[in-house]
Amino acid sequence: MADVSLPPPSSLSRNPVVRALRSALLLRESWVGLIGVLIVLAWILVAILAPVIAPFPPNQNLVPFKPPGTPAPGGGVFWLGTDQLGRDILSRVIWGAQRVLIYAPLATACAYALGVTMGLFAGYKRGLWDDVLSRIGDIILSFPILVLYVVIITTFGPSGINIVLAVTCASAPGIMRIVRGLVLDLRNRDYVAAAQTRGESSLYIMFVEILPNARGPLIVDACLRLGYTIITIGVLGFLGLGLPPPDPDWGGMVNETRAMATFAPWMTVFPCIAISSLVLGLNLLADGLREISLKD
Questions:
Q1: In the list 3, 79, 273, 286, which could disulfide-bond 223, CB 3.0-4.6 Å?
Q2: pLDDT 10s digits, 136-165
Q3: β-pair type (70-71, 77-78)
Q4: What InterPro entries would the database entry show (predicted)?
């Protein structure tokens, strides 16, 4: 019979799947993080099931200025009312969640891919790499972030891809600074010296030895930064620089109805509640992950 043996405990502890499972179990001990997970998962389900649960097409013109709870002609109910064009606000909020949960994670992921790579090279290579990348980051960070967003979007035009581009360019330098600081500490650890002794390449050491050991602060920052990105998309939509109409955009919904908020407040309030609740869920999740990182 073949000898089947388990990997040594040290290798199990470094397995990313084992780490993820252990973190998920620890999350049960943080009620704050658990509430955050439930809120975020609820919005993810809403976004996935948008074609099924939305009571009306998001751009269908029905009856304008109907308050919440008004029966709809032909059956159904306007649970959150309708806007000035007669579009069902609940349907637009549901479809807007789908747009936000596509572009916000994509923009955050692109910003992290660029920022982490820059930070690893700056912190590990030092010298010319550090000087050049740090100066590029300083130049970008010297611009007010909202002005930078507006310049990029107005230059290339409002679209989902250009929002991703703007968030990536504006957020990557901040991520680079965080990663660089972590790498400056981790590059002097014994496991890095052991990898260097084995003759491992710099890319292997940066991405296999150093990056996994910096995951705790980066995961927490990613949750917070994802919330900031959702707010950014809302702000750009409010300024008319978000997703082009008629696509439902939470910020754009607020912008379109703000002049009528005094006599039809439901048109503005519900998109704002959607943005706030999703960002709140991500912030609570980040707090829970911070607690986990102290126990893990």
A1: 286
A2: 999 998 888 888 888 888 888 888 899 999
A3: antiparallel
A4: BP-dependent_transpt_permease, MetI-like, MetI-like_sf, OppC_N
Residues contacting residue 263 through CB under 8 Å, at least 6 positions apart: none
Q: How far is CA 87 from the centre of its chain?
A: 28
**Of 90-94, 145-149, 173-177, 225-229, which gets the smallest average pLDDT?**
145-149
Tens digit of each residue's pLDDT (9 = 90 or more) over 222-239: 999 999 999 999 999 888
pLDDT score of 205 more than 70:
yes
Question: For tokens 């039809």, what's the residue?
Answer: 264
Separation of alpha carbons 272 and 280, rounded Å: 12
Residue 76 corresponds to which tokens in the numbers above? Answer: 């159904």
Within 13 Å, how many C-alpha atoms sit on residue 200's CB side? 17
Partners of 70 in beta bridges: 78
Give the integer Cα–Cα distance in Å for 159 and 154.
10
CA-CA distances (angstroms) from residue 94 to 52, 206, 295?
Answer: 10, 41, 37
In this prediction, residue 292 carries a pLDDT of 73
Q: Is the pTM of this model over 0.70?
A: yes
Q: Please give the Cα distance from 117 to 293 (Å, whole number).
A: 23
Cα(158)–Cα(191) distance, integer angstroms? 47
In this structure, the number of other CB atoms found within 10 A of the CB of residue 207 comes to: 14
Q: What is the pLDDT of residues 117-126, one digit of tens each?
A: 999 999 998 8
DSSP 55: S
Cβ contacts of 124 within 8 Å, gap of 6 or more:
183, 187, 202, 205, 206, 210
State the pLDDT at residue 2: 42
Distance CA 22, CA 130 (A): 35
